[in-house]
Amino acid sequence: MARARQVNAAAKKIAPIGNECVYQFMTDTLHDNILKPKGRSMLRGLRGKCPRCGEAKLFRAYLKPVHDCSYCGQDWDSIRADDGPAWLTILIVGHLVGPLIVYFVLHPAIPLWVSFVLIPLLVAGLSLLLLPRCKGAFMGLIWATGAPTS
After folding, report:
1. How far apart are CA 53 and CA 57, in angstroms?
2. 45 near 51, Cβ under 8 Å?
3. What is the pLDDT of residue 35?
4. ∠ at Cα 35 (37, 45), nearest 5°?
5. So where are the chain's domains?
6. 57-85 pLDDT tens trace
């Protein structure tokens, strides 16, 4: 019952149809003031979707965010993730590749050239794969917390 009151409080009655009423959700109020969970916004950004609505693409190029969401109209020009995504990418890749480096050092039966080829390729591939996802997650977190940006 409390959930129904919360939804009805966030909706605006626009037209009666017979015995039922049609409600138009006030999405700006609903998203901006009531429902801004950080985890959901970060997961949407991680998927490369708009952290606000989860529908439209967040990036127009590899790391270039769209000016505004084509679905909900949220402005993304004002949100800058700066060095956070690079820091998180390095942290994750280092923790994934570090044990592999230790394994190659402790097992001299594996030829040295294999580690010289495999490790840089793995680091570059993981970094290129994770960087846009980390940027999306940071943008979602910055938007959800309302942190000041430049």
Report:
1. 10
2. yes
3. 54
4. 45
5. 1-35, 37-145
6. 999 999 999 999 999 888 998 888 889 99
